[in-house]
């Protein structure tokens, strides 16, 4: 596992980190700070190599600065060149920003085995974030037709998924303690002028590693209760 401040490729053992059981049907890996494209490639490889016996996993990480464009994304939603890479990805959704201090959790799940529909998974992810915020006295909300979690009008968590042969990858990003200024160079999730916030500014005094552990626990709880 990499130190939290060191960004680079996932570990050479295959998928990075040491998988730790978090429930009877789920393992979690803490990858540290990783390169987005290499982590994405590892997710694709993990999903392609799955069998019916493959245990589902959550991958917790942070990323070096990068803008990512989902399948519905439009390049014109990048408003300024900050010298930050822009990657076209295979996830759903529009444009977003990833950087150090933002917790990203990728969900590598067999949806068929869990008898879970994509909309149900989206609801489970959102509820996990809402429950985490509620533990610290912050009210998180859904906005109809705009997946993610909001505090008032400001977005604190974004999500995007890819489903291939009944199995999903990609996941959720939660702003924790990061430089939010790159969001001003995009229309976040395709919405011009959408404000963003982070848990630190909402009075939650947890570092990213603590948030990652807590959110992974909430995600596991949501997934288990929906089986």
TrEMBL record:
SUPFAM superfamilies: Class II aaRS and biotin synthetases. It comes from the Bacteria. The keyword Transcription does not apply. Substrate binds at residues 91-98, 158-160, 171-173. Transmembrane segments: none annotated. GO terms for cellular component: cytoplasm. InterPro entries: aa-tRNA-synth_II/BPL/LPL, BPL_LPL_catalytic, Octanoyltransferase, Octanoyltransferase_CS. One of its GO terms (molecular function) is lipoyl(octanoyl) transferase activity. The active site is at residue 189. Pfam families: LplA-B_cat. It catalyses: octanoyl-[ACP] + L-lysyl-[protein] = N(6)-octanoyl-L-lysyl-[protein] + holo-[ACP] + H(+). It is an enzyme of class 2 (transferase). Residues 52-227 form the BPL/LPL catalytic domain. It is found in: Cytoplasm. Keywords: Acyltransferase, Cytoplasm, Transferase. The record marks 155 as: Lowers pKa of active site Cys. Belongs to the LipB family. Catalyzes the transfer of endogenously produced octanoic acid from octanoyl-acyl-carrier-protein onto the lipoyl domains of lipoate-dependent enzymes. Lipoyl-ACP can also act as a substrate although octanoyl-ACP is likely to be the physiological substrate. This is Octanoyltransferase. It comes from Candidatus Accumulibacter vicinus.
């Amino acid at each position: 596992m990499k130190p939290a401040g060191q960004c680079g490729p996932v570990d050479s053992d295959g998928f990075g980190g040491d998988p730790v059981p978090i429930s009877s049907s789920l393992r979690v890996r803490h990858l540290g700070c990783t390169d987005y494209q290499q982590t994405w490639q590892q997710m694709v490889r993990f999903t392609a190599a799955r069998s019916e016996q493959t245990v589902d996993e959550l991958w917790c990480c942070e990323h070096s600065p990068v803008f990512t464009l989902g399948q519905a994304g439009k390049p014109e939603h990048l408003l300024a060149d900050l010298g930050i890479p822009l990657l076209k990805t295979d996830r759903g959704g529009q444009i977003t920003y990833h950087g150090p201090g933002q917790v990203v959790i990728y969900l590598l799940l067999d949806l068929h085995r869990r008898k879970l529909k994509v909309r149900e998974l989206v609801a489970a992810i959102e509820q996990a974030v809402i429950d985490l915020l509620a533990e610290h006295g912050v009210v998180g909300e859904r906005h109809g037709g705009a997946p993610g979690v909001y505090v008032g009008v400001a977005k604190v968590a974004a999500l995007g998924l890819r489903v291939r042969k009944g199995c999903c990858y990609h996941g959720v990003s939660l702003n924790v303690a990061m430089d939010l200024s790159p969001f001003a160079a995009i229309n976040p999730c395709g919405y011009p002028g959408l404000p963003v916030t982070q848990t630190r500014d909402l009075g939650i005094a947890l570092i990213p590693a603590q948030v990652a552990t807590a959110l992974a626990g909430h995600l596991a709880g949501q997934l288990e209760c929906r089986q």
